[in-house]
Amino acid sequence: MTAAPAREHAIEARELTRRFGTFTAVDHITFDVGVGEVFGFLGANGAGKTTAIRILTGLLAPSSGSARVAGHDVYTESEWIKRRIGYMSQKFSLYEDLTVGENIRLYGGIYDLSREVVRERTTHMLSRLGLDAATRVQALPLGWRQKLAFSVALLHEPSIVFLDEPTSGVDPITRRQFWELIYEAAARGTTVFVTTHYMDEAEYCDRISIMVAGRIGALGAPAELKSQFDVGSIDELFVRLARPTAGAAG
Amino acid sequence: MSAFRGLLRKEALHILRDRRTLAVVIFMPILQVILFGYAIRTDISRIRLAIVDPSPDAATIELRNRFTATDAFRVVRVLPSAGTLDRLFASGAIQEAIVLDGDFANRLARGLTARVLVVADASEPNSGSAMESYALAVIQGYERDIAARGGAVRIVPEARMRFNPTRASANLFVPGLIAFVLTIISALMTAISLTREKETGTMEILLVSPLKPLEIIVGKVLAYLVIGFVSVLLVVAEARLVFAVPLRGSLMLLLGEGVLYILTSLSLGILISSRTSSQRVAMIGALAGTMLPTILLSGFIFPIESMPWPLRAIANVVPAKWFIVIARGVMLKGVGLEYLWPQTLILLGMTVLLVAAATRSFRIRLA
Amino acid sequence: MRRILVLAWAEVLHVARDKATLAQALLIPFVQLLVLSNAATFEIRDTPLYVVDQDHTSASRGLVTRFSASGNFTIAGASPSPELANERLLSGDVTMVLTIPHDFERDLVRTHAAAVQLVVNAEKGMAAGIVQYYASRILTRYAAELAPALGGGSAVPASTESGPRRGAAQIDVRTRAWYNPTLDYRHYMVPGILVALVTLIGTLLTAQNIAREKELGTLEQLNVTPITRGQFIAGKLLPFWVLGMFELAAGLVLGRVVFGVPMLGSPFLLLGVSAVYLVAALGIGLWISTIVETQQQAMFVTFFIMMIYLLMSGLFTPIDSMPRWVQVVAELNPVRHFVAISRAVLVKGAGLREIQRPFAILAVFAAVVFSLAVRQYSKRVS
Q: I need a surface site. Which of A37, C163, C264, C274 has the fewest CB within 10 A?
C-alpha cells in the first residue's frame, strides 16, 4: 500500500469552495495544518465550519478548489483519507443501545484492527477514562459520551483527527479534561483539527483560523493574532471580525 | 385556543414541506386503483381446456361447442386419447381437461349413462374448484337440454345476478381498495408522525405547553384527515371515470362514511403510537400488523362467510370489514343509512373506543 | 469479511436489545400464519339463503329441504313476500333468494317442467357463480328424484347404480382434482402466506434500517471509516437474512405440524431457493433505505411495493386471469416467483429442473438488486 510521503503539512486547502444552490457555505478558503499541530477552527454558528470539516473528511465533495488530507486528494482519494483519519461529529454518533465495549469492538473491526490490538487498546482506554466496558452508552452523561467518542475516533491511531464542536454543551470541568485528552493525542504526534465556538478554547490551540460567513477572517497563532489585531482576547477579535459582516448584511 | 391553532399550522407545514411523502400519499392510491382495477380478477376466464374425444360424433361435437361458446373456456386441444394429458398439465399448457368415454355418444343415444371425467389442475385449489364448477355447469346445461328433448322431469332455474350482473372485477375491488388504502395510509401516517415526535424529543415541548392531550392528538390528526379525504375524492372520481364503477347511492353519504372511516383508522394509528416509543416499532405494528389482516379478513378478496367461525369472529374487529360493506352497499346496491346504520354505528363505536384508549395511555405516560 | 461480521453483529445487538421490535419480528409472522391461512378460501359453505315459497306444496317444501340438507346453504329466512326477501338482500345478510312460484307443483305434474327463480347477490364476485352452480345442481338432483313418482325420465341417475331408463339421457360426471386431491386450500396458502409475511417483515426492517441511521446521525460515523459500500450493504443484509431463513424454516415446520402441508419435494431445495430469494427481498429493502431520507418515507415506499408484491403475486388471485400486460409486470415480482416455487416444491413435488426458470429469475434479481443497493449507497452526504 502507498505510505504517505513524509511531509510537513497534514492538511493543505487551496481556494476550497462549496456551494449549496446559490448559497456559498465555504468560500475559497486556503490554509495549511502542520503535522502534530492542534489547529482550532473557529466561527459562529453557520459560518461554514461543519461544511469545511465534511469536505476534509471525504463526506462531502467540494464544488471547486483543492485540498489534500494526509497526502491524499479529497476528490479522488477520499477512501484513502478515511484510513488515515479519525472523526467525531457534532451530533453524538456512537450507538446508544450498545455498550461501551461493543462500540469499541465494532469500530476496531471496521478499521481492521486485530482482536488482540482491540483488546489491549480497550483496556488502556477504559482505565484512562475510568469507564466500564459493560455500560450501555445511553446511560452515560454527555461529557462521558464525548470523551468516549473522542477515544473511539483515535482507536485506530489515525494521523489526523477531526473534532466537530466536541465540547459543546459540556460542563467546564469536563471540557478541561477533554482538552487534556486532546493534548495527550497531540503529544503522540496526532494532528488535531478542532472546531469550537468557545473562544477560551482557542487559547489552547497552536494555531487558529476564524471563519466569517464562509471565509477565513483571521489565521495564525492566538498570541500573534491578538497583537496583530491589537485586541486583549480572542473573544474580542471574534466579535470585531463578525460585526462588519453583520453590518454589511443588515 | 391560539396554541391549538399554532399546532395546526405547524402540522400543516410539516406535511407540506415533505414533498416526497405528500406525493406518495396522494398519488399512490390513484396508481393503485388503476393497477389493481386491471390486475385483480377473482373470476376465472379463458381457462385452457383440453377435450379428449375418442369417437367424435354429433353429440360430442355439440358438447364441445358448448365449451367453445362460453367466455370461461378456451379449448386449446381436442385429443383422441388421454395419453398426453399428464404432460400438458405439467407444462401448464392446459388447466383443465374433459375426458369423454369412447362410447359416450353411443350410450347417450341408447338412453344409457354416458361417462365424463373432469380433471382440473387443483394445485391452486380455489381456482381448481372454480374451474371444476364451471365445467360441471356447462355439462349440466347440456344434460338439461337433452333431457328436455326426451321429456324428462326438470326444474329450470332462472338465475339473476343482482348488484353486479356482469360481475366486473373493478366493481368488487374498488370499494375494497378504498378501504385498504385508507386504513394503511391513515393509520401509518399518524402512528409514525406521533412516534417521531417522541423519538426526536419534540413531544416533550408539546407536553409542557398548555395544550391538553386531546388537543394535541386532534391537532396532529386533523391534517391527515384532510389528506385522507382528498384521496377518497380522487379514488372515487377515478373509479367512476376509468372503471365506470356504479355509484347507485348518495355521494354525500359515501363521503361522510369515508370521513368516519378515516377517523377510525387515524384513531388506530394514534393508539399504536401511544403504545410505542420508536418509529421502528410503530411502523412494524402499523404495517405488518394490519396489512395482511386487512387484505384477508375484511372481505376485500375472500368472502368472510366462507371462513371458519373463529375467523369470522376475528374479522369483526377489523374496521375495514365494516367499511367495505358500507362502500359496496352505497356504490353497488344503492342503499342508504336505513340499511347501513349498524355498520356505521360499529365504526363510530370503534373510533370512540380507540380514541379513549389512546388518550388514556397518553395520560398514563404523562403521570 | 471481518468488517461485514462486526457490522452484522452490531445489527444483531440492535434488534436483540429492542425488545418490542424483536417480539414483533418473531410473533407477527407465526401468529398471522396460523390465523390467516384459514381465511383464504373461496369455498362456499353455509350460504345464507332466503326462500320465497309461493307454492306451499309438498314438492316445493321438498325442494327447500334439499337446499337445507345440501350443506351448501342455510335457510336464513322464509316468507311468501318478495319485498321482504329484497330487503334482506339489500341489507346483505342473505346471499341468495330462491323464489318458488305458486304453480310449481302443478307444472311439474302436468308438463314435467317447472321454473324457479334464483337471485344471487353478486357484490362479492366469484362466489356468486359458484353459489349459482350449487343451486342448479340441487335442482337437477331433485328433478331426478321426483322423476319416478311423476312417471317421467330423469336427467341424472338418482342412485349410484344406474340402469337404463327410457326416454332420458344420463351423464355420469366424475371429477378429479390433480395435485391437490383433497382441495385443501390451506396446503396451498400456508407456503404463500409464510413467504408474504417473511418478506413483509424483512423488507420493513431493512428499509427503515439505513434511514434510521441517517436520522440518528450514526451513519455519518460509519461513512468516515474505510468500510467499502459492498461490505456495508452485506453487513446490513446478513443479520436479516439469518432471521428470514430462520422464520421460513420455522414456518415450514409449523405448516407441516399444524396444517399437514405436504412436502412432496425436497425441503432443502426450498431452503436453498430461500437463501437466494431473501437476498433479493432484503436487497430491495436496503435499496429503498439508501434512497430515502427518513423512516417515514421508507415506510410509504415499502408499503407501496409490498402492496404490488402481494396483490400481483398470484397468492390470492390467479395470475393467469390477469390481463397480458399485468402478467408481464408480474414477472418482475420476486414474491410471485418464490410463491410459485414453494408451491411447486411442496405441493407438486417439483425438483430443481421444474423450477429452474423462476429460480434463475430470482438469482438474477438478487444479483441486480444487491448491486443496485451498493451503487445507490453513497458514503458522501448530499
A: C163
Residue of C nearest to A153 (CA): C221
Read off the pTM.
0.82
- B165 versus A213: the higher-pLDDT residue is A213
Q: How far is CA C217 from the centre of its chain?
A: 41
Mean pLDDT of chain B: 82
Q: Could B277 and C326 be called an inter-chain contact, meaning their C-beta atoms sit closer than 8 Å?
A: no
Distance from CA of A115 to the nearest CA of C (A): 11
- Considering chain A, what percentage of its residues have pLDDT values greater than 90? 67
**Would you say residue B87 has pLDDT above 70?**
yes
Domain regions of chain B by residue span: 47-162, 169-366
A102 contact residues in C (CB cutoff 8 A): 10, 13
> Does residue C112 surpass a pLDDT of 70?
yes
Q: CA C18, C21, C26, C30: dihedral to nearest 10 degrees? A: 160
According to the model, what pLDDT value does residue C51 have? 93
**If you write DSSP's letter for every residue of C184-252 in order, what string do you get?**
-HHHHHHHHHHHHHHHHHHHHHHHHHHHHHHHHTHHHHHHTSS--HHHHHHHHHHHHHHHHHHHHHHHH
Q: Report yes or no: C140 at the A interface, CB cutoff 8 Å.
A: no
Residue B120 or A68, more confident? A68
CATH class of C47-178: alpha beta
pLDDT band at residue A1 under the 50/70/90 scheme: very low
Residue C115 burial (C-beta neighbours within 10 Å; 0-12, 13-18, 19+): middle
Q: Confirm or reject contact between C83 and chain B (CB < 8 A).
A: no
Residue B40 or residue A73, greater confidence:
A73
Give every CB contact of residue C83 below 8 A, 6+ residues apart in sequence: none
Tens-digit pLDDT profile for residues B101-114: 888 888 877 777 78
Helix (H) or strand (E) holding B320: helix B319-328
What ipTM does the predicted assembly reach? 0.84
* H runs (alpha helix) in B151-212: 169-200, 202-208
pLDDT-based confidence at A250, cuts 50/70/90?
Answer: very low
**b/e string for B24-45 if b means 16 or more Cβ within 10 A?**
bbeebbbebbebbbbbbbbbbe
List the domain boundaries for chain C: 47-178, 184-381
Q: Across the interface, which of C144, C165, C311 has its CB nearest the CB of B111?
A: C165
* C-alpha to C-alpha distances, B268 to A47, A180, A184, B352, C23, nearest whole angstrom: 45, 53, 56, 10, 20
Whole-number Å distance between alpha carbons of C22 and C34: 19
Using CB atoms, pick whichever of A59, A102, A110 lies closest to residue C227.
A110
Name the CATH superfamily housing domain B47-162: abc type-2 transporter like domain (3.40.1710.10)
